[in-house]
Design goal:
The protein is of the alpha/beta class. It contains 19 helices and 16 strands. The longest helix is centred in the middle third of the chain and has 25 residues. 56% of the residues are buried.
């Protein structure tokens, strides 16, 4: 465990205040409670910390017993990215589904209900929504997390989502500034690069962020991407030109004029950590204009917190980071904590419950092709799930598909999961033969996710449809490939409610999508 002697209490408290660490377990460890008492203001929660709403409420109450104005943050986008319902799948469709419906009142209502549930559990900062314009359909990390590929559509739904969430007393953190949509690399693994000129970026990537700022988003999260038009060397999270310039500078100087809290994306991500390390990266981020350091998705222990605290204190004492910049960042964090405490008190008990809004939205988001001549299965079907490698933001612990949802309508439904590794080892023909063997005479429902990005999946689906043309195809990712199958359903996301909505259509209970 590292320590630093000779630092003032104020400097140490400010260094702790700008950290947003995570931890392991479903109750707060003693070390975290001690650090809250010493000046830590924020705590980040992940799926590993949550088993039920009641347990989460008890955990946040434990934190507030030490620090009444603690910021309790979570990455709860709804849809594919859920921490609140990581073990079951989300009760809310994600951004792409909401964008497909294109009803901002619905988007606002979904975010309000999501915010109400978070607030009820004591969470008051949500690292969402994603305001990325998904201009690259091969993007491996955004996809269905985006409202769509049109800047204006993404902008109006980003604003509605922010308004809905914050009306429930939960601060929004719009991400991933200045826009992660035109990338082909996942920043969890490497540094993405965007070479678009500044005019293109202003007319595309920045449009939703302007709308978020206008809607009053309390926070903006930076992206670990290299925006060469502004800074050919440093990723956005570490770049003064991106944070202090493009995001923070007034509109009269070409910026967005954002005055709220700037939060970094996870500092353990390879796009920053591989080149700079988390200590150096955190110092550079605060110096560039970030106010809060998100860490804990991977490194979730006291040692990490102390390493980052000490690195920030040392940077000030060595003259690398100004004491005023660190104090300003810490003050912004504390100001948001005060806002969240007051907003939560005002909203408590005033936001009406809307328990069915998620399923309503998922049903409206369906795009169904081939319904005119479709006949539902008259016996339990076989669900063949073609499973891609899931990106880290989504996490592999969250179930997806619709086998469980179909089993509620067709008891005795069978299923099997098929992967790229199996296809490469056995070959497409052999894999499909195994699917047919397992299915026997059952109707087959083939579930895919971003089939346009996975040749093995596309080849397997084509072979399956050749052998069994009556197969139902359900695309639960980005629907880029042409519709195929006797019935094709695009759900625009893999949330549990999306699976439920698709299962209803397969069973003949609704084909108006």
């Amino acid at each position: 465990m590292t320590t630093l002697t000779g630092a003032t209490d104020t400097l140490t408290r400010n260094a702790l205040a700008v950290l947003q660490p995570g931890f392991t377990g479903t109750t707060a460890p003693d070390w975290l409670l001690r650090r809250l008492d010493e000046g830590l203001v924020s705590v980040g929660l992940f799926g590993r910390n949550i088993t039920s709403p009641a347990q989460l409420a008890a955990l946040t109450a434990q934190l507030r017993g030490v620090q009444p104005e603690v910021l309790v943050a979570i990455d709860e986008e709804g849809g594919d990215v859920t921490r609140l319902e990581a073990r079951t799948g989300s009760s809310f469709p994600g951004n792409l589904a909401l964008g497909a419906v294109d009803d901002t009142d619905l988007t606002r209502a979904v975010a309000r209900e999501l915010g109400r549930r978070l607030a009820e559990c004591g969470v008051n900062l949500n690292w969402a929504p994603s305001a990325d314009v998904n201009s690259n359909p091969d993007n491996p990390v955004i996809g269905v997390r985006s409202f769509g590929a049109a800047p204006d559509l993404v902008a109006r739904h980003t604003a509605a989502w922010v308004e809905g969430l914050q009306s429930a007393g939960v601060a929004a953190c719009t991400k991933h500034f200045p826009g992660h949509g035109d990338t082909a690399v996942d920043s969890h693994h490497a540094l993405p690069r965007i070479d678009a000129d500044l005019d293109t970026i202003r007319g595309r990537e920045l449009v939703p962020f302007r709308a978020a700022v206008a809607a009053g988003s309390k926070c903006v999260m930076s992206a670990h991407i290299l925006l060469t038009a502004l800074d050919p060397t440093l990723p956005g999270t570490l770049s003064p030109a991106v944070l202090s310039g493009l995001l923070r500078a007034p509109e009269s100087e070409g910026g967005l004029g954002f005055e709220g809290l700037i939060v970094t994306d996870g500092m353990e991500m390879r796009a920053v950590a591989a080149a700079h390390g988390i200590e150096r990266g955190s110092v550079l981020a605060i110096a560039a204009g970030a106010d809060a350091i998100c860490v804990g998705g991977g490194l979730a222990d006291e040692e990490t917190v102390l390493r980052l605290r000490d690195a920030l204190v040392r940077a000030v004492t060595d003259g690398e980071l100004s004491e005023e910049r660190l104090a300003d960042a810490a003050d912004r964090v504390r100001a948001l904590a005060r806002w969240a405490a007051r907003a939560g008190e005002r909203a408590a008990g005033t936001v009406p419950s809307a328990p069915g809004i998620g399923l309503t939205a998922a049903r409206r988001a369906l795009k169904v092709t081939g319904a005119e001549d479709y006949l539902p299965p008259d016996a339990p079907p076989y669900v063949a799930v073609f499973t891609p490698v899931v990106n880290i933001a989504v996490g592999d612990e969250t179930p997806w598909g619709l086998a469980a949802e179909l089993a509620e309508l067709y008891p005795g439904t069978a299923s099997g999961s098929w992967s790229r590794e199996q296809a490469e080892e056995a070959g497409t023909a052999a894999l499909v033969a195994r699917v047919l063997d397992e299915a026997a005479d059952r109707r087959i429902v083939a579930v895919v996710r971003d089939v346009h990005r996975h040749p093995w999946m596309a080849d397997s689906l084509d072979a399956l449809l050749t052998a069994r043309p009556d197969t139902v195809v359900v695309e639960m990712g980005l629907p880029q490939a042409p519709p195929s199958g006797a019935l094709h359903i695009a759900t625009h996301g893999a949330a549990r409610v999306c699976g439920r909505a698709a299962a209803e259509v397969i069973a003949g209970r609704g084909t108006d999508g």
